[in-house]
Amino acid sequence: MKKYDVCAIGNALVDYEIEVEDQFFSENEVEKGLMTLVDEERQGTLLSKVAGNIKKKQGGGSAANTIFGLAEFGGKGYYTCKVANDEDGRLYTNDLSEAGIDTNLDAQNLYQGTTGKCLVMVTPDAERTMNTYLGITTDFSVNELNAEAIKNSNYLFMEGFLVSSPTGLEAMKEAKRIAAENGVKVALTFSDPSMVKYFNDQMKEIVGEGVDLLFCNIEEAELFAGVEGMEAAKDAIGKVAKEFVITKGKDGALAFDGTAYHEIQPFPTKAVDATGAGDMFAGAFLYGINHGQNHAQAGKLASAASSAVVSKYGPRLNQNHVKEVLSLLNK
To answer: What is the pTM of this model?
Structure first.
């Protein structure tokens, strides 16, 4: 039996949850609905204009949100990342520790530099727009990988955001190699349409000859394959992933278990903040398939969990939220 359900690698970012109006985007030339990489000066300028609207600050990042989701349902995860010895870095390591997530980080010996930050700007329609300064995680590399943690996991989970960094891409390839040589399944999330749109060659490089499990939304699937429509998208994704989940927002998701397709129905909710919905879906789904659930059951759990996330601010669920999700499923 492996020690971990999932070993994840990704960009460690402290999320600043901020409420804004649509007008803010036009006034400050921010592209709504996407994740945009910015430099420290640009991010600081934006932050100075919305500092009074910060709702919450906590450790985040695509793969981190997924591994937190796994842990919230009782799964055992390991998270590999890079943060600096500053206030945000210490907050990040503390978040991981409190959640019972093992990590390569040593709270007493963090890196020198600046921890990455993500301004998660949420509009009244619940859509999230992210402007990210990667900080020290720009240099995330093979040096941060823990080969033993990968070997002792059922799944290696990688976030697509890493392909934007040359060293991050190399780390993904090395982690994938370690996993393949040790019988560890490889799961990948495209993370955001911008990663597939602007780094398509790098994304196809990391997909390579294929992955065991792929998470994406319909827009990412279409961009990756250069096709339009669900039928064409699922056929294209099926050529590079043994199993996959394509999420469809308020319309649920489609899961493929290698043999059959499963339509995953949505759970109606009043959306407040869409941040981390896809990440939570992946985390709950990975928990399910690691703990005896088939793809339909895991998809139902994931759908309920992601609906719970969008009904509140931030990408996390506390134990009361988890109990409510499980109670809803039992009914």
So the answer is: 0.91
